[in-house]
Each structure stands twice: as C-alpha cells, then as structure tokens.
Amino acid sequence: MQDKQHPAGAPRASGFAALGDNPWVLMLLPGLFWAGNAIVARSVTADVPPIGLAFWRWTLAALVVLPIAWPHLARDLPKMRERWPIMLLLTTLGISIFNTFLYIAAHTTTAINIVMLQTAMPIVVVLATFLIFREAVTGRQAAGIVASFAGTLILISHGDPDVLLNLDFKRGDLWMLAAVVCYAVYTALLRVRPPVHGFSFAFASFALGALLLLPFYVAETILVGSFPVTTNALAALGYVAVFASVFAYMAFNRTVALLGANLAGLTVHLIPVFGIVLAVLLLGERVHLYHGAGIALIAFGLWLATRKPTTD
Predict the structure, then answer these.
(1) 10-residue stretch averages of pLDDT, the chain, 312 residues long
(2) What's the whole-model pTM score?
(3) Domain limits at 152?
(4) How far apart are CA 225 and CA 242, in angstroms?
(5) Helices (H), strands (E): how many in the chain?
(6) What is the total count of domains within the chain?
(7) Is residue 212 a part of any domain in this protein?
C-alpha cells in the first residue's frame, strides 16, 4: 500500500533516515520494546494501579513526541479534525483500551497467559481485515502465520506440551483477550487513518488517549489510590512511555503502512524471542534446544509470510 508520508514519485531518504522505509528493521523494534511491557507491568502491580500507569504513560509519551510533531501540527490538525470519528475510534481501541486492559490483566493473570494470548494477535488481525475489508490472506501468508505461531507456543511452553494443556485460565485472561481483539481491529483500521505525518498522528493519538482515560484515572485515584512517586514506579513509567509507546508505536504504525496489517501483525511473534534474548543477556539464563527450535520456526514463518512470490 502507498505510504502516506512518501507519495509516489517522491525521493526517498538515505542513510539513517532510510531506516524509516525499511519494514524488516522496523518489525524488530515493537517486538523488542513490547517484550518488556508486560514484564514491567507485572513488576509494579503491587504498587501501581493499572489505569494510573496507562494514563501517565500516554501523557508522558505525548509530551515526548510534541516537540518533534510541532512543525507538522499546523498542517495536520485540520485533517485530523475532519476525520475525527476514525481518530477517536483508533485512539480508543489502540491507545486507551488495549494497554489499560493489558495492565488490568497483569493484576489478575500470569505473564505466560498474557504472552500466549498476545501471540494470537496476528490471527485475529487476519480475521479483522477480512471482516472489515474483505481482504483475504494468501495460502503462503496463512502457512507463515501458523508456523510462526507454532514457534511462539514452543517458546512459551519451553517445549513441553503439558504446559499448554495444563494452563490455568484466570479472570484476567478475558481482559487480555478483549485487549487483543481491540488492537487487532486498530491494526486493521490503520489503513484509513488521516493522511498526516507520523509524529502528528502519534501525538494526537497519545494525547487523546490520555484524555479519554482521565475520568477513569480520577475515579481510580479516589477509589484505589494515586500513582506512587517512587523510583520503581517512575522507572516503569519511563520505560513504557518512551520505549513501549513512542518508539514501538511509531515503528509498528510505519510497518503497517509499508507491509499492510496482516504481515505487520507478525511483529507480535517477536516478543517472546526478544524476551528470551534479554533473559540470556541480562539475567544469565541458559539457552536450551527448544529456544532454537521455536526461534527457527518463527523465523521460517516470517520469511514464508513476507516472501514475495516468484514469477516465471
């Protein structure tokens, strides 16, 4: 699909800026930064209320993006106001609901359940694009998605089928399932977002997302408690606002523009891959055979799904 930031015939950037046109590099970033999102959320569940974390995440993310988006906002704000229904829908699904539900799920289910449900997202994206736009997935893409999904299950289960068969489903899994459906629809609908600069869209989405959460944050503060100003809480906020929000969302939205929703959704399968890499590098965990098998299957699935068909 045509990129809204680079119309047909326009010159492409070179050097570092050209990374913004390389979907294969961009696909890596959301998986890397989102790998820590659920872990960070789980690590502060005892102290940080979920809506408070989501509200301040998007507030800080909007402030971080604002200086970069500022030169484009005068031109782009009228376009976004004209398309306010789709802006409101995208923000509600992908910003306000998805991460808030994920953080609520983190309070009431396990990290493995969250990751397992999240890895089903590419399949839900395919269903969403078909139901909304009647866009069918090719046999090659379907096979790639299935192979990649199987690889994530190997990683999540540590190569032991009994882990999956004996999963203890909890109330929080329903929150996570709803979050996955919302983000899948968000991903599918990104193709009809206003044709504005990526930073303008990110700022408007982040700011509107925080505004939509404000009344719920006020209610949570009154009923549960306020966001704690502690070192751990602020460190968690900094990570989810800058890395899991600004960097990850910008890269993911750009990948959707370059590859389409069905293929961009496969970035989710890189989350457990980077989770393992970080565990080995930072925690000294040992590499096992199932790690290699799962990662190889994910890599094969990504290659198969994104490979351009050869012509005779």
Answers:
(1) 42 52 87 82 84 95 97 96 97 95 86 80 91 89 91 87 80 90 95 95 98 97 93 93 94 92 90 81 79 91 79 48
(2) 0.84
(3) 29-306
(4) 24
(5) 16, 0
(6) 1
(7) yes
